[in-house]
Write a structure and sequence with these properties.
The protein is mainly α. It is built from 6 helices and 2 strands.
Length: 145
């Protein structure tokens, strides 16, 4: 898990200056009416961090087999990320991910196999959830920069 934590730090450290080079106005533009703006994509990554934070912690101390589904479009719509400042979103995203990387680094070895279920047909191991979080993070960051 330490390697995944380090990879998250690298993503944040490399992406943060590139995100800072994007103007607030540019970050608010939607490429199409039904597509997310850069602010909404980064907001989605903040939501992902929030949802996964719960999974990571709960899976360490107990079974995390029952989590509500993450309704990503509803979360983005309700929070209206385009009305937030780009800098605030960057700061929240980067600091939240630095915190998560510290948390992931501290996950005990014996907890890697703890099961998590959030709407999939079968529960998955915490190690898969953490690895998939990094994959998801990289995917969306590549859309932004």
């Amino acid at each position: 898990m330490k390697e995944i934590a380090q990879q998250i730090r690298i993503v944040v450290d490399e992406a943060e200056p590139k995100l800072n080079s994007i103007s607030d106005n540019e970050a608010s533009k939607k490429p199409a009416p039904n597509k997310w703006s850069k602010k909404e994509i980064l907001g989605h990554l903040i939501d992902s961090a929030s949802n996964n934070h719960q999974r990571f912690v709960r899976a360490v101390y107990s079974s995390a087999e029952e989590f509500p589904l993450y309704q990503q479009d509803d979360w983005v719509r309700v929070q209206q990320y385009n009305n937030s400042t780009w800098q605030m979103l960057i700061n929240l995203w980067s600091n939240y991910n630095r915190h998560l990387s510290d948390l992931i680094e501290r996950i005990p070895e014996e907890s890697k196999a703890s099961l998590c279920n959030f709407g999939e047909p079968q529960p998955v191991a915490l190690e898969f959830v953490v690895t998939d979080y990094l994959r998801h993070l990289r995917h969306h960051i590549s859309q932004l920069i």
